[in-house]
Fold each of these.
Amino acid sequence: MKIKFRIKRCDPMSRETCEPFVQGYDVEVTEGMTILDALLKIADEQDPSLSFRKSCRSAICGSCAMTINGFSRLACATQVMPEVKKFGEMEIEPLPNHTVLKDLVVDMNPFWEKLEKITPYLTPKEGAEKVCVLPEDLEAIGKSQQCIMCGCCNGECNALEIDKRYIAPAALAKAWRFVGDVREGNARRRLDKLSDEHGMWDCVRCVHCTQYCPKGVAPLKAIELLRSAAMKEGITDNHGAKHAVAMAESVKRVGRLDEAAMTFKTLGFLKSLGMIPFGLKMELHGKMPLPLVFAQINDIAEVRAIYEACERKKGKG
Ligand code: SF4
Ligand code: SF4
Ligand code: FES
């Protein structure tokens, strides 16, 4: 069976092909063939100039991440036939949120620089000769150890798309691997740094990183654990932590989000004044009730009972 592969290509170094263009290749495919097998076949039989990365061919090295029919995935772990059944054709593009070097090869330097920022190795507790690591301790960081550095999560990250300075999910998942390790001696310092601008609080919780990670690392869960650990350490003098506190207070007080009050509590009085034009726009579009007539929901007692139960549980824990 012949399938059309439409591959987005460009070579910024070449005068002829520096603008992205789509090239079609007809490929004879068989059951069980992966996208990487098909790309290798194209390179062998039709066009040796087609560039892409690969190494292990077994979803281990993380080299072959690319966009396959609109989603960031590993070419060696994605079979052609199920894709064809779903989409009819094959559209292959480079990984999003990364600069293209040539065809499907992207610049991974920003990815490694972000990783470098989180100090990607254990810095043990001083003076502690031996620390006993129990199975449950390993479980707490287990998934974050499965990362193969493929970059699919960063490719799909909405926060990274709008701000390239954001530390992004792959580095945050790795950060939890060390913060959550019972042998780590600098967890507090790490959390302080991650709470800075462009750090963990920039995540907008779109869940894409968890959805598209091919190894089940669940970076968003790691981000939640990091945030929670920072708040337990009392690292709350930043917009993200203040926003989380304001949100919890708002739901407890009125049963829903009081956007105006939350803005004041998050940004402080002076910075909130700059948000007034935005607030008025929301008001005009019916997105925000007037702050002064913000009524609590009817069943507020039930909401508060949930809070009290959580506080009781926290007290026992
Ligand atoms: S959940 Fe957060 S870190 Fe993950 S992709 Fe969305 S914005 Fe990025
Ligand atoms: S967390 Fe998952 S998607 Fe992100 S780099 Fe690691 S393995 Fe790839
Ligand atoms: S070639 Fe190694 S993960 Fe695909």
Amino acid sequence: MRIVCLNCLAEFKFDSTRRSWIWVLRQPNGGFATRVGDYSRRLDRRCPNGCEIDEEILDYPTTVIGFVGESASSKTHLIVSMIYSVMNDPVLAREWSIVPSRRSTKLLAALENTLMNRQAIGYTQKRGYVGAQMQRQENGIGPLGTPQPPRPPQPPMAQPQTQTHAWSGWQVRTPILIKFTSLATRRTVNLAFVDVAGEDVADAEIAAKVSPHLAIADFIWFVVPSTLNKQYLAMMREHAGPANEDSLSNPVEHSQTVGRTKMMIDQIAKLWRTANSYPLDLPIEPPRLHASTIIAKSDLLSLINLPEVGIVAPPADWADSPYSLNGAGNLYQPGQIDYRSDATRSLVRKLFPAVDSTLSIHFPHNRYFPVSAVGCGKRADNTYPVFKPFAAVDPVIHMLNLIDHRRAER
Ligand SMILES: Nc1nc2c(ncn2[C@@H]2O[C@H](COP(=O)(O)OP(=O)(O)OP(=O)(O)O)[C@@H](O)[C@H]2O)c(=O)[nH]1
Ligand SMILES: [Mg+2]
Ligand SMILES: [Zn+2]
């Protein structure tokens, strides 16, 4: 099984008969060499470059999922809400055991608690440069913008670590890793949720550094907020009720634009093609990469009067009605998920058609998933009236189905 360190992208295998690492070193001419490391590294839970890794990635295949979107588009809320929703979903529980990795448990619990206490999660910090010596300390700003306590000093490495890598000197951003075990087959797959801060994509220097990470992604989710069309945003403001008045008048939250979103999609496609030596004029297709789009903050769509809204978005009284009566808006069945995807595409073609055409140029298999991570907008005091996600499980069902197909093909 090929293992990739999600921090430095070192590729390695673990040879249990020889009790050693086999470290694959890619060379610029397309060839590769290998280097054998010793077994103690496994006990360290470190990659050959010395980064701390989740021990689960040594044991099970890992699917890497990148979330890309402009700042304040809801990426971080989505990741936390999706994970929370799948771990508590009664239908998924019949088929899967879903457990966070040991290293992700604490961070995930803190983020979930924030939402369950109806508090907003802060914006994710742009990745900072911390200098060559500090790169492995991992303290300061943690993943997803959460402050992390400083870690105690680490024991010295067995060998001097002189290797530089894609992220040398940059803050480490740890993905959230969730282990999915099928109750029917007992097979396990890890899903690694990687949050790419909006500013990381906007900054050319950092974007170039993000590209090797995008190159190893199995899934990319573009996150596009429902409020992208400012004419419709004005209409939403006109019809807003107490549940979303504050958030709609918040200028930062709806600062995303059609122009920048198109540029971002173009940029990501270009970075991915370059990093994978993929022809510039060919569309990017599965199984190389699964790209889909989440239309985020779908709770706001009920404020506009278009026929697709009834299929796509939660009802206008979603935040006020009791949870148990209407479930969590998931459809579960691939056929129904496709039907909602088509309705969402039709809506997108009315609200921001240029985004759909840019997506379909690069990613002709793109599908749409409308999701409300929270179920409502945040109030001026940074709290939510309720935490009630809508359709946050369906994107994960979609991915699990595709992962299963991929296995069946092998
Ligand atoms: N109405 C509504 N607002 C939401 C929802 N999810 C998030 N928001 C609002 O959108 C804002 C941005 O959400 P984040 O999750 O921080 O966005 P992000 O994409 O991670 O942004 P960066 O970290 O800056 O890249 C938050 O302050 C939320 O209040 C939702 O489901 N509905
Ligand atoms: Mg964020
Ligand atoms: Zn590493």
Amino acid sequence: MTPLAKLRSPVVIEQVMARIHAIGLTSPLRIMEVCGGHTAAIYRFGLHHLLHQNIKLLSGPGCPVCVTPVSYVDHAIALSEKEGIVLASFGDLLRVPGTRGSLSDARASGAHILICYSSATALDYAIQHPDCTVIFLGIGFETTACTIAATLCRAIDTNVKNFRVMSAMKTMPAALNALLSSPETSVDGLILPGHVSTITGTAPFDFIATQLNIPCAVSGFEPVDILNSVADIAEQKCDGRAEVRNCYRRAVETNGNSCAQQAMRRVLEPCAATWRGLGRIPDSGLKIQEQYSEWDAAEIQVAAVESMEHHGCRCGDVLRGSIHPKECRLFGKGCTPDHPVGACMVSSEGACAAVFNFHTDYAD
Ligand code: SF4
């Protein structure tokens, strides 16, 4: 059996389920999967159907497109209207509704917006088109931020002056601290983000166990990975322990990826950031260091736009784990992946899209 087949094997899944059932939970557990990749995998593989009635999985703020505030989309659209500007963006972001339409609408109306799979592609475009200024829409967590940092390093080292980044990059630890410290949040355990942890390591999440007394497990994205993490968290809870367990050892180390961290430290620095659903959180974002302001799109002025979320969209509640997507009255009615009203219905990692795409009976 290949390693991947083993991580999806019904036999191995049954073994992990037997481990979960043997724990003998006496009270319900609410476990939040922080990462949108986990949310997508849980619904894609139907893992929520397998779990004990006493274990409820909640989606968290781990989809980068979802947590990017509407004001960022509005600002990007305003930038796209300036002469000589070419925006470059990941495809998902184009479909996120802004106050007066999406980037996709702006593109249809003539704005020059490239769809890229990486910031490096945007830089290459800038090098090939010196007559325009290419602005890369830099959203994402640590996993993406290190690649954007590497691209910025290349632009700086090769003195490419017609490339900038509009940063809405975010970092997980401070945001999780804000979310978990809120009296409105009721979470018994956390499945920590696997991709982010490959960069950060597990150490930045230790405070969740030591200070907030919440059991955690860093997880991979296959069914056996996720169920093993659930089992680990449930065992910790039953034993009265709170630790950060690394259940994704094939990719994650305690101290993460030092090379990626070094690239980020060279050109980026922590800043306050606004998260959809969580508000403004100190030290939860990354901005370009002042000495590299020539590469920072924040230096380009645009007219202020008054930003507003769509009335009735409950993405904020979904991202805080306060409601299940189907509790939004627009779910599957006014809001579908073809016609998203909120960001959580856009990306495949968004909780609303995951439930809509893979949860056909919309049952719990
Ligand atoms: S179903 Fe649509 S409108 Fe409702 S919370 Fe999700 S994205 Fe927002």
